[in-house]
Amino acid sequence: MPAKRRKGSDTKKPSTSQPGESSLLLSSSSYNKEDKPLVIPRNNKNKREENVLVIYKKKWSCIDSCCWSIGFICCFWWWLLFLYNAMPASFPQYVTEAITGPSAHPPGLKLHKQGFVAKHPVIFVPGIVTGGLELWQGHQCADDLFRMRLWGGTFGDVYKRPLCWLEHMSLDNETGLDPPGIKIRPVSGLVAADYFTAGYFVWAVLIANLARIGYEEKNMYMAAYDWRLSFQNSEVRDQTLSRIKSNIELMVATNGGNKVVVIPHSMGVLYFLHFMKWVEAPAPVGGGGGSHWCANHIKAIMNIGGPFLGVPKAVTAVFSSEAREIAVARALAPGRMDFQTLQHVMRMTRTWDSTMSMLPKGGNTIWGDLDWSPEEDYKCGAHKLMNNDSQIVGQTGEESSENANSVNYGRIISFGKDLAQESSSKIQRMEFRDALKGNNLANTCRDVWTEYCDMGIGGVKAVADYKVYTADSILDMLHYVAPKMMKRGGSHFSYGIADNLDNIEYENYKYWSNPLETKLPNAPEVEIFSMYGVGIPTERAYVYKLSSAAECYIPFQIDSSAEGENEENCLHGGVYSVDGDETVPVLSAGYMCAKGWRGKTRFNPSGIRTYIREYVHAPPANLLEGRGTQSGAHVDIMGNFALIEDIIRVAAGATGEDIGGDKVHSDIFKWSEKIKLKL
């Protein structure tokens, strides 16, 4: 009979245990030499020997933290979605009203109860980037994307195949049209621009409110177009202008002869301005509609956030692919942000001719020079938020207080904060226009080529040595740093002021989108509205600096460290701000209707009536309000109840006088009077 063994006598002891002790070692292939053991002593039942549990604890890494964070966010997000779908449909409105009081009825419902009904057909003209684009032909990397949206929607392919997406979204750098083997076309119908992405409305709220008084797809039309193309090229490639003409004629004919109300937004304002000249011009360049086409088919043009005279933001988009927010991100992560993102963005966007339509027009006469600008007395801290029922300022602007702010917004780009504030007599500039380009930057252009790669160190230094750029010199500078793009754009757009509008040269289509180089149609019964938000700091001028040597593939950047001495200085993060809608300054959105077209002028020979309707920005009171119903922001204003009500009233038959004429809160009339332009 075998001898009895004492319990635990045949347990193998690891080298880490002490004599007379028993232990359990739990090993794993995942630990390494840097892992530290966690020793947990425990007593066995007989208390004769102590068992030691040795666990190798894995070192916590940054990847673990990221994974856990992402998992937590996803779980929390799905939990919120579950609660949202589980709650009654009226619950969010109930909570909102409990916090803020009873909410206003949607304008469409309100006006429907008052007896308003659909009358005039409505044409929507979307702006840049808000219209969806889909793939019809592509390269091998996009074989499974036929008729899938590459712009708008979920943007899933930006993350799945970014280089393939960039390749297909770019146009030909020589022609400004489709690259070989690629066809991207605009989405058609109201769905083209009702939502930009899921949950982010553009035209959807306005469409829904128009439907409340009887509008439907047969009397609403989305004039979708490929917003990357120059305006005339959209006709050359897609016959978009011809389609707009045909649809307007059809809608007038099928709606009892009622003329259309056209509602362009953002760059769509310039696009429709081009259309009005195209439709009356003789074929084959124009639409052949004759000099009375607009008078016979258009009741009113209600421009929303129109950059009639361009936007300074377009300058920085071409110059360094930046805006205020991007400049901050670039400063926080300079190397990664530049190399992996901005360089690709610059190469793609410099093939989009449409961006050149929004460069500042009118030169120093409109935007100011080294010593003067129309908004030079603007004080950032003086504007108070108010609702849209507040007191209306008269056309003389006499109710605006004077102040001593001396910011010179005419210096749109200054290389250094000191040069933005220095007396012009003390600024010594070196001419850049004839500077030789050399010392190729090819060592920084291994992955993505841009025109800066051919510019060289000498060319970069020449641009910086000019020190300060106004609206006049900026165009020359852009021709120097982006010659291919500006050469293409020069055949489609112009930025000057016409001396004699009867000169035959202004029959060229490149002048048709510049209100300072073309006449409005002979249509005295048409009304033109300029509707835009105010009360939001809007980019107007910039402080720049040279990037470090390691970043010279985009050698210039906004100096986000430049700050003003006080709030009234309007300088924050290297950007000087004025009043506007966050994208378009008041001067650009309002000048033509305030003065350039007001009454009979050489730009408005038939005396088309013009109105300004400003909407003071009021942010949402809480998160449940979403983007708000009183927003004045460039895109969010499309959900502004006051603006929507004005549009519905006009579409139902009201005139500009019926809805109250001008409604002005800014100093647009005062600033317009400072501009000495022959009218």
From TrEMBL:
Pfam family, one: LCAT
BP GO annotations: triglyceride biosynthetic process
Catalytic reactions on record: a glycerophospholipid + a 1,2-diacyl-sn-glycerol = a monoacylglycerophospholipid + a triacyl-sn-glycerol
GO terms under cellular component: membrane
Location within or outside the cell: Membrane
GO-annotated molecular function: O-acyltransferase activity; phospholipid:diacylglycerol acyltransferase activity
Keyword Aminoacyl-tRNA synthetase: no
Region Disordered: start-end pairs: 1-30
Topology in the lipid bilayer: Single-pass membrane protein
Domain of life: Eukaryota
Entry protein name: phospholipid:diacylglycerol acyltransferase
